[in-house]
Task: structure prediction
Amino acid sequence: MVLRQWVICLCTLAFIMGFGFGLANGKVVRKSRIRARVYPTILVDPSGKGNFSTIQSAVDAIPSNNRNWICIYVKAGKYREQVNIPFDKPFIYLKGEGKRKTTVVWNAHDSIATSGTLISQADNFVAKSLSFVNSFNYPMVTYDYNAIKPALAAMISGDKSAFYRCGFIGFQDTLWDVQGRHYFKLCTIQGAIDFIFGAGQSLYERCTISVAAKPLGELAGFITAQGRSNAHDPSGFVFKECNVIGSGQAFLGRPWRDHARVVFFNTSMSSVVVPEGWSAWESIGHESLITFSEHGCNGLGSNTSKRVKWEKKLKPDLLWWLTTSSHKMSSQYAWCVSTCLALFFLGFGLAKKSHGIHSTIRVDQSGNGDFSTIQSAIDSIPKDNTNWIRIDIRAGVYKEQVRIPADKPYIYLKGEGSGKTQIVWGETLLHSATFTSEADNIIAESITFTNSYNYPPKSNGNPIKQALAARISGDKSSFYRCQFFGLQDTLLDDRGRHYFKNCLIQGTTDFIFGMGQSIYEKCTIATISGHVNPKLAGYITAQGRSNPNDDNGFVFKDCKVVGTGKTYLGRAWKGFARVIFYRSSFSSVVVPEGWNAWNAAGHEDQITFVEEGCRGPGSDTSRRVEWVKKMSDEALQTLTSISFIDGGDWLHNLPLNVLGEPEDLVH
Result:
């Protein structure tokens, strides 16, 4: 079926589009033998070296009622034009070279329906790595009430539209999220007055919301003006894990229509947010109809003690529905978006990704491989890769800092043994980890990660500081037969679903910490607090679950807790910390109290620290803190089964049988 679609699409495009599309062959990474996928692309280059010199002429060239994804690749530059994607031009993927490099600028304000720099009316539209600017009021230096008018950077009214790493810059009414299901990820939206408005059913994930209200002086701006018109309208704006920053002051939102719905979830808010948070605007007297809500937010602007009294507290089931992608798009569309954003294979029916190894890069310090450093091998992989690429790392000590950025998913790092392939670095603080993984879909096998700043503890005179061996913040990451060596904060299990099997994690203070949703199975957890200060007890975990609706938590299943000195099983980094030790073996290193409330002291009832079916000298619970939880069999089964982290069966689809014995599907 896929092959047939290839043939039909190629023939149709060749017949209809007589001028010919440039086929973007991609870069060939010769040393690693990687070949980027070939897909039909229209190239826009203002220098005249592409198929077109303007974006609109490329859009106009696409046949009406097109049904196959077509990529318009826009070279870096400033394009002074208005871009209109009409109703009959669906399945367009507009890709720039970076939101700071590819910029579309227009200067219009006569009508919000016609003045947007980008007007997207078609369904199934994707844009990535470019910015849309309305320069009428931007940049604004001094505020003139009479001169300020709505001046849109974008108007999005088509259904099933996705924006990835895009910028939307204006002053008033920057982004009109008109209607339809929309997804914005890692985008920047900037403005001062109602700069995200409309009746879209939209999820803004990990976006930067930049308030530019300083020219307003003593007046506060408004981030959102949502237009939900009745109680049965599914629309609403959800801001998930975003950052609200900027200058001046701003309300989080005001209702454009009486049933407005806006949720800020797990979002960081700077001091630009006014204490009241929200304004009822023209819905005064009907505040009960408005759904404005904040959950799990942090930062100087997140203090809700002075918020308007009518701000809503949502029920957990509604909050879950609103903050998951299922609310914003069907599962088919979610799959479509994730595939489109990766974009090695756009245009031919969105073919299913192979779960096997697509190609292999070899790293050997002796010079007999494709690369001599691990980082250079990672750097050679194309951005937004959608095929599993294995990096085989020969035995040796690699003295380098290794980082997998967010746009390099589907990498499988394979060493020759955790005692043979070692990566060593020695710096402090959170962003100086020996290994940093920000991308989704990452595997590491048979590798040791060591932060040598404090480790081994007797070999240097450095004061004890945060010194990370690894920071894992991408989703769907798995580690098999790996070792993590450090002293304080060895492993930052930052966020996302993670699976560790047959691993060794060593340290003394909070050496497994973060907000990950993770299972540690058959792992060895080794405290070395006895080597540092035998009189002080260490802490294995410092978990950061911040509210009862968070899915995250650490589950240790069939593990071993060993080492020297004494240690607590964990302490609460944030108020709703959740850690479970299930069927694990505890040596005598575990202190009788077991746990410490730390930052949640006085709120111990919110903490979920659980031990079930454990054994060994340290498993005696007779002297445990009184607030250790007893969990129902049903809840325990839910949290300790692989389904806790395996939504979508991602672990079953890896090119490594990580749930059983390791076995590559493709050698």
About this structure: Residues 554 and 660 are 21 Å apart (CA to CA). The helical segments are 2-16, 55-61, 316-323, 325-328, 331-342, 374-380, 529-532, 633-640. The domain at 357-653 is CATH 2.160.20.10 (Pectate Lyase C-like).
